[in-house]
Specification:
Structural class: alpha+beta
Number of strands: 4
Low-confidence stretches: none
Shape: elongated
Strand content: 15-25%
Largest sheet: 2 strands, antiparallel
Strand order of the largest sheet: 1-2
Number of helices: 3
Length: 128
């Protein structure tokens, strides 16, 4: 047989022209993000705790404890991870509409695809 393949390559499964077409597989991706930040609270009270050590000495600790809903206070002052993704998607679509397919070395159409279809299961805000 007369072909244009390199010698011995016509039936090589590793050759690009012999690769099988890719298959699509549906998956679920779950990511957990953590951010430490500071929020400003206005409602709260000072707590003083006295502990008695095993040797009988007393130690007093004082700290400020907020009465505010920390999650609500955080979300009023900062974007959640899902909101950042949605805002990124809006910015990308605006850039694409303006004819920019690359920005800061990033291919915008792929970034738009990466931003789509994320769902937020929950937002938890704790104070230490």
């Amino acid at each position: 047989m007369n072909d244009n393949y390199p010698p011995g390559a016509a039936n090589d499964p590793r050759a690009p022209y012999n690769e099988r077409p890719g298959m699509e597989t549906e998956i679920t991706v779950k990511s957990r993000l953590i951010k430490e930040t500071v929020i400003e609270t206005s409602e709260g009270h000072y707590v003083r705790e006295t502990e008695i050590e095993p040797d009988g000495t007393r130690s007093t600790v004082g700290f400020y404890e907020t009465d505010e809903d920390l999650k609500e206070t955080f979300l009023n002052a900062h974007r959640s991870a899902i909101q950042i993704i949605r805002d990124c998607e809006k910015i990308c679509k605006a850039l694409l509409k303006d004819g920019k397919r690359f920005f800061a070395g990033i291919y915008i159409p792929i970034l738009i695809d990466d931003c789509e279809d994320w769902e937020e299961e929950e937002t938890i805000v704790n104070s230490d």
